[in-house]
Design a protein that fits this description.
With 301 residues, this protein is α/β, with parallel strands linked by helices. 51% of the residues lie in helices and 13% in strands.
């Protein structure tokens, strides 16, 4: 099941592809658009794939990595080759390591295969971005689509209040709903590096944080209700069921909170459908929320 930061990062790439290209040092001369990353017939899907329609079009294959995977270079190569075959375009692969725990000695930027008899084999290159070594100034001054990554860059914890103030200044002209989305993203991504309470305290004074702080508060409230219900039943089965029901309630309220600025007010029919859905289906709705244009589209997918 996807983690919250997966959906957050993929949404940011989809909504602001030019900003991500700029952060990685690319200057497209033509339009940039998302393309289908599915290669399920062989190995699932790449994280995100951008098509850059330069005079000679090419694809950027982007993998966002939060945990260590010694086999990542081979996986990058496999996706690169399959995307090349599917789209008949050259592919450049980049992996962004989101925290030091994702690093590995195998991530050298080069994958080599040598044969003992000296014939054949080959070498393939890719890019590795270690986010915690990236200058925070580059993210603060870059596009807003990569701005929520700033607290994960090369910055001492003591400087984070300064970083947050700089982010707030950048987002000052954004619409309230858009700014709230960015702070939700920032809060979720900070969970990759910092304790939850630290992130809460750091962001509590930020404008437009009513929506963003509610994100985690809703989930916590739902889990708390579930634990209370399970304990009152006095059985481990009851506790498990109570936790599930509590999380479902939290996710249900999150969908409504995050969906209404984009999709309009959730009427009684929408609320009734959400009320009947189990936790797994609600989580699927939450992951599709940013790609839906109406409540009907979201709930019928």
């Amino acid at each position: 099941m996807s983690k919250p930061f997966d959906a957050t990062l993929k949404h940011l790439v989809e909504a602001y592809p030019e900003d991500w290209l700029a952060h990685l040092g690319f200057t497209p001369r033509g339009p940039v658009r998302m393309v289908d990353a599915d290669i399920a017939t062989v190995s699932g899907a790449a994280d995100k794939v951008l098509r850059i329609d330069d005079p000679q079009p090419w694809l950027l294959h982007l993998e966002l990595q939060a945990s260590r995977d010694p086999a990542l270079p081979r996986r990058l190569l496999r996706c690169n080759v399959l995307l090349d075959e599917r789209h008949d375009l050259p592919v450049h692969s980049v992996t962004i390591l989101l925290r030091p725990e994702a690093d590995s000695q195998t991530l050298t930027g080069t994958w080599k295969r040598e044969l003992p008899h000296g014939r054949g084999g080959g070498e393939w290159r890719y890019d590795v971005v270690r986010l915690w070594k990236s200058p925070v100034e580059a993210l603060l001054e870059g596009g807003i689509g990569t701005l929520p990554l700033a607290p994960l860059a090369a910055v001492e914890p003591a400087r984070l209040p300064e970083v947050v103030r700089a982010m707030e200044a950048r987002l000052g002209s954004a619409a309230t709903a858009e700014a709230a989305e960015f702070w939700v993203s920032t809060y979720i991504l900070m969970g990759l590096r910092y304790p939850k309470e630290f992130a809460k305290n750091l962001l509590q004074g930020v404008r437009a944080m009513k929506e963003s702080t509610t994100y985690q508060a809703i989930l916590e409230e739902g889990e708390a209700k579930g634990i209370e219900r399970g304990l009152s039943q006095g059985l481990s089965q009851g506790l498990s069921q109570g936790l599930s029901q509590g999380r479902a309630e939290g996710v249900r309220r999150l969908i409504v909170l995050m969906g209404e600025p984009r999709l309009g007010a959730a009427d009684a029919a929408v609320l009734a459908v959400l009320e009947r859905c189990p936790l797994a289906e609600l989580e699927a709705f939450a992951l599709r929320l940013q790609q839906s244009e109406s409540w009907a589209e979201l709930l019928s997918a």
